[in-house]
Amino acid sequence: MTEHEIIEALAAFDRRIAEDVAPDALWTALQDLARQLVGAKLFTVTRVHMAEGLVRREYTSDPEAYPVSGTKPIHRDRYFEVVHEQHRPFVANTIAEIATVFPDHETIASLGCGSVLNLPAFLGGEIIGTVNCLDVEHHYTPERVERSRHLALPAKLAFLAADGRARSPGA
Q: Rounded to whole angstroms, how far apart are CA atoms 123 and 115?
């Protein structure tokens, strides 16, 4: 993907969030951007509530397999160390690697996914959520992981805008 194509993808994301008022418009625009930049057969967004020690899925591209409901406890494991402490993307490129940190690895595999790229979104030193891209095994090459840095600002913007829409009287 060329620099020009990346700029065009970011501009399209900007136009969509500026104009689309549908409830999931922010997340679908971010999903489309992620799919263009790094690829994502399955795309989810998770909100982190550190004070409660919980995460909650806020958006999913597959509501049947991964519905938006309930919460999960935060586990202090290798994933936590990379994402929460080191502020880096977590990458696992085989289902065996995924199984070491995600108990739902069988569901992930059943969807034809075998690699994961979890991108943390931080504001003011605190994690607010993660953008989660899943695809076939060995999909998240070093080049794609590097390209994922272009999702950092749009992800923060989407989280903040979602917060603003949730507080807005017309939301």
A: 27
CA 170 → CA 21, 143, 150, 167, distances in Å? 11, 41, 31, 9
CA distance 102 to 42: 15
Q: With beta carbons less than 8 A apart as the criterion, state whether 101 and 77 touch.
A: yes
Q: What are phi and psi of 169, to 5 degrees?
A: -60, -30
Q: Where are the beta strands (DSSP E) in the chain?
A: 42-49, 54-60, 72-73, 90-92, 115-123, 126-135
| β-sheet bridge partners, residue 43 | 133
Whole-angstrom distance, CA of residue 39 vs CA of residue 43: 9
Residue range 132-150, pLDDT digits in tens:
999 999 999 999 999 999 9
Number of domains present in the structure of the chain: 1
What are the C-alpha distances in Å from 106 to residues 91, 94, 137, 161?
17, 12, 14, 33
Instruction: Look up residue 171 and give its two tokens.
Output: 């939301």
Range in 36-50, 61-75, 102-116 with the lowest mean pLDDT? 61-75
CATH number of the domain residue 29 falls in: 3.30.450.40
Domain extent for 146: 3-167
pTM over the 0.90 mark: yes
